[in-house]
Amino acid sequence: MNTNNVTDFQADRYVELWNTSEDELRRATIRSLWADDGVHVAPSIAVRGYEELEARIARSYQRWVVEEHCRFRKRAAQGHHNVVRIVWEMIDSGGNVETVGSEIIVLNDSGKIASAYQFLDQ
Question: In whole angstroms, what is the distance from residue 120 CA to residue 6 CA?
């Protein structure tokens, strides 16, 4: 697998997923990005599988996008072999950076996310 061809595509879709308001689109995007037993691990939570991923991302959307009026955007992404590193920002409604984080994503041989590990940098 040539990760250089998928890094930006995966990174853009991955970050935009956290801003997605429509349940069906969120569900479809999760299924297109993650393996069926894929995991997402953050400092305070770990989830596995489509149902848990959907609930995790929906909760994040509700809290940060709906309630706090923030959005996520990609700052940078790079990858090699089956690993992608994404640096993202959470910005408020005025465009000010509230949080900077990064994700280390391990892709399976089919190019789907096997595991994603979130780190909060700022």
Answer: 24
